[in-house]
Amino acid sequence: MISYLTTQLHLPLTKAANTLTNFGGTSSLTPLLGAFIADSFAGRFWTITFASIIYQIGMTLLTISAILPALRPPPCKGEEVCVVANTAQLSILYIALLLGALGSGGIRPCVVAFGADQFDESDPKQTTKTWKYFNWYYFCMGAAALVAVTVLVYIQDNVGWGLGLGIPTVAMFLSVITFVGGFKLYRHFDPSGSPFTRLIQVAVAAFRKRKLRMISDPTLLYTNDEIDAPISLDGILTHTKHMSFLDKAAIVTERDNLKPGQVPNPWRLSTVHRVEELKSVIRMGPIGASGILLITAYAQQGTFFLQQAKTMNRHLTKSFQIPAGSMSVFTTVAMLSTIVFYDRVFVKIARKFTGLDRGITFLHRMGIGFVISIIATLVAGFVEIKRKSVAIEHGLLDKPHTMVPISFLWLIPQYSLHGVAEAFMSIGHMEFFYDQAPESMRSTATALFWMAISIGNYVSTLLVTVVHKFSAKPDGSNWLPDNNLNRGKLEYFYWVITVLQAVNLVYYLWCAKIYTYKPVQVHHNKEDNSPGKNELQLLSSKK
Fold first, then answer.
1. What are the contacts of 537-543 at 24+ separation with CB within 8 A?
2. Chain-wide mean pLDDT for the chain?
3. Any idea which of 17-31, 49-63, 158-172, 318-332 has the lowest mean pLDDT?
4. How far apart are CA 33 and CA 494, in angstroms?
5. Which SS3 state, helix, strand or coil, does residue 522 take?
6. Are residues 447 and 108 in contact, defined by beta-carbon separation less than 8 angstroms?
7. Highest mean pLDDT among 42-56, 249-263, 298-312, 450-464
8. What average pLDDT does this structure show over 101-119?
9. Helix ranges, 152-268 (H)
């Protein structure tokens, strides 16, 4: 899309980069709304269905704008200054992107959770399949991205943007029809009411009873399996000692006027399960936030990495060159290869040392991804120094549109390292949110994953804007120039991100060290190789 905005709509580089990162940020923020709708009243299936229709409309509008000349500025002529898209043309673009963002809000938090819902976690035979599902879900996403950055980008660059955008629009239409057609095959779970309301009720009840003395025996706290049944199909959350001030919401007092068989006022009295739901969400916050800067680093692939590639020799043969927009194929291939290696080799080896079914915990997996991401942006800075040195040697410093005689292969390490980092960190991040969230909030938890991506994109926009503003000098030079990358200091920008990620890694290690896993009592209802029907077994989510 960066190529479409700069070559077809003629937007300046920084404006185009910020438009895309803002769109990415909004697309990752709207899942909070979609998750609320799904978990509260609509259910995941219908949320996915209606959101897909909205997304389809947005894609159709974007395709039409690429086909009709009236919706684009005229092509550039020679060395003349290109005409930038007018307000009406940009409005069409922004409406299409907004519809895409709204559609993503319903699709992203629900698709992965809806897929994981198809596994019965109470069956011991399926305990390892959920984490495998996350690996292969991400693999399928990566495979689709691989087609996008190869076949579709080639069509967009060599045939036309109308066909290049039209193909995924038709594919999206067919996928919606296929998804809806499988309605009777899926496991469906009824929504259990607004999770946000329950969290607020616990907070209010705890605040009302803030002056009470905490009881020493947690077994005296209020429990009611009957009213918690709809939100604890896989098991009841057990009491934890942390954040004990919230436990006051489960202390029964005379003012609660609780009678046998009566449902209490949830704004005054909460069950231990509901208190632990709030604790789980609070505990997830610091770990979830640590993924923001990795997304900020990753976002550069669609902007400045691509601009580097445009200036370099991308020819594989005399007559064929790799489109700059297809350079991310190296990220995708590295990610896909790492997922296969992780699932087929790494887990089996790690399992021998850790005894865990998944090989290593998702926290360890995320930590590995953070380290690799730091290396990726560090390497990117040195590659940019090399690219500019070649430009200087050949007198191309002030010729931004002339190809610098340096091979695109120099960019492969930074692209590939980001792919490896994503396979470790992003999948681990998604696993963490799904596994550690209360079961009635899994769409919401997946939305938190996308919210971290959203904030990461916004941080990228903020960082680009701040660096562009404060690195500007009276002579017109800038770390991130709009028109001549050869005169910039892009390597400094990469190293700023590297330092920020290093600080973030220290923060993450501290959060991971003090983190308390969600304790759950799982009801086993299978007859084969499982405890009795009414027996409870305390499990750790480290499994």
1. 538/238, 539/235, 541/435, 541/436, 541/517, 542/356, 542/361, 542/517, 543/127, 543/356, 543/357, 543/358
2. 83
3. 17-31
4. 33
5. strand
6. yes
7. 42-56
8. 83
9. 153-158, 161-181, 195-208, 225-228
